[in-house]
Design goal:
The chain is built from one helix and 15 strands. It has one domain (about 10-295). It is mainly beta. Strands 3, 4, 5, 6, 7, 8, 9, 10, 11, 12, 13, 14 and 15 form a 13-stranded antiparallel β-sheet that branches. A two-stranded antiparallel ribbon has the order 1-2. Residues about 1-25, about 70-75 and about 145-165 have low confidence and may be disordered. A hairpin with a 3-residue loop joins strand 10 and strand 11 (about 195-210).
């Protein structure tokens, strides 16, 4: 939904990838009073496919930039629009004794349509444009490994290392139950620097419905975003800050144990401030990112 979401074209592809898509859920176990325990059961060798769409609306403004010589042009306000479509596939490479699995995520048939300054371009992307990623997903949905992405469409960016981001409740739950999941993210910084950040996601089991003739559990998730990072750029101090909110809704198939669909939205304000040629300059990007996944070829 900065650090994790600065790549405004490809970021939505990856934060939308819910690892639920590569798993089968264990049959819900009663916890008393009709409560159920949601867990995943992976099937070795299984591949599932999802149609992915993303829409990015951004408005960029700058202030304080010198008229020439900085290599940057002052902008009173530039609007851009980007739409992305493609197919996401998740292949279960193997399952260990605990029930966790190693899952390979690939994106194909990617098409990016971008409009900036009234000019629109449509670009098909090759498979190498978005590298294949491999993650380990535990039965509760928590993840480990390079390329790990958060559940329900939250917190994903290729190359960012995300640990312990399970969206599933820790025990049996009834509709209306709330729980909190956390993530620990290591961000790459200039000059081979790293920054460790903590994020918190609030979840609620909304209830059960039918979607496309399949019974599904509906999980709503919300993440407040407030990240500030100090940087050194060209020997000068700079500050990067991102604020906003990320929300997501996951439709989890109770009978099939698969992600049926998900949708997410991020409302972000990304700010960058520094000194260029002895003067204070700033850049702000207001961004709305909407993305969705829907299972195909069930």
């Amino acid at each position: 939904m900065m650090s994790r979401r600065s790549a405004l074209v490809l970021a939505p592809l990856l934060f939308a990838l819910a690892p639920l898509a590569g798993a089968h859920a264990a049959r819900p176990h009663g916890g008393g009073g009709g409560a159920v325990l949601l867990r995943y059961r992976f099937v070795p060798g299984q591949t599932l496919a999802y149609q992915l769409t993303a829409d990015v609306q951004a408005h960029t403004t700058t202030a304080g930039l010198p008229a020439g010589g900085s290599g940057l042009a002052p902008m009173g306000g530039v609007a851009s629009s980007t739409q992305v479509s493609g197919v996401l596939q998740q292949h279960v490479e193997g399952v260990d004794a605990s029930g966790g699995a190693t899952v390979t995520v690939t994106l194909s048939s990617l098409v990016v349509t971008a409009t900036i300054g009234g000019q629109t371009t449509t670009t098909p992307l090759t498979a190498t444009a978005v590298p294949t990623t491999t993650v380990y997903i535990a039965p509760d949905g928590s993840q480990h490994g390079r390329g790990a992405v958060a559940m329900n469409g939250l917190n994903g960016l290729n190359g960012v290392n995300t640990q312990s981001v399970g969206a599933l409740p820790p025990g049996p739950v009834l509709p209306g139950a709330r729980w909190t999941t956390t993530s620990s993210t290591t961000l790459p910084l200039p000059a081979n620097g790293r920054s460790s950040l903590q994020f918190m996601v609030q979840n609620i089991l909304r209830g059960y419905e039918q979607l496309g003739g399949e019974p599904v559990a509906i999980i709503d998730s919300t993440e407040p975003i407030n990240v500030a990072t100090n940087l050194a750029v060209g020997g000068q101090s700079a500050r990067l800050r991102e604020t906003g909110t990320a929300t997501a809704q996951t439709f989890f198939g109770l009978s099939t144990g698969q992600l049926v669909a998900s949708q997410s939205q991020e409302n972000l304000l990304i700010g960058f401030s520094a000194r260029v040629q002895g003067r204070a300059v700033s850049l702000q990007v207001r961004t709305i990112i909407q993305s969705s996944l829907r299972r195909v070829g069930a």
